Q: What sequence folds into this?
């Protein structure tokens, strides 16, 4: 079970006119409510994280694990999509991942509106957040419904 997770607009919700505050690990502070909501999804589902964020290639899996732990989030594992060297849109990156993965039990949490144009069978597994709000209760419940339906 996987959460394909974006960071900006999901976990980091600082408005563009404000400086994004970094923690001592040189990565942006997360929205506290988004952090506790993500931890809630992880504890309910034991899903692993696949980072889709444009920051994905800045750190390796161990470093990402430390970054998430530092923000109160304890995933079973963190992987990333392959580096986006071809400057694909998020939608194209997701389609590329989908073509190479056999995982059917996943949710995509992202604020990228290009995901609205995904084919319906992938679109129905997307939770599209609003970039200044991020992973709020409504988005959390939607993500949980997608992940938990699959099990029943
Ligand atoms: Mg984003």
A:
């Amino acid at each position: 079970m996987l959460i394909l997770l974006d960071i900006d607009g999901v976990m980091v919700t600082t408005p563009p006119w404000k400086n994004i505050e970094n923690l001592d690990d040189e990565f942006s502070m997360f929205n506290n409510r988004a952090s506790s909501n993500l931890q809630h999804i992880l504890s309910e589902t034991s899903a692993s994280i696949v980072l889709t964020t444009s920051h994905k290639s800045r750190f390796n899996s161990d470093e990402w694990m430390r970054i998430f732990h530092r923000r109160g989030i304890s995933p079973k594992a963190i992987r990333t999509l392959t580096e986006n060297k071809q400057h694909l849109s998020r939608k194209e990156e997701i389609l590329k991942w989908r073509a190479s993965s056999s995982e059917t039990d996943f949710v995509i949490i992202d604020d990228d509106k290009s995901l609205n144009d995904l084919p319906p069978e992938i679109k129905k597994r997307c939770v599209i957040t609003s970039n200044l709000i991020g992973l709020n209760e409504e988005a959390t419940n939607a993500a949980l419904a997608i992940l938990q339906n699959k099990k029943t």
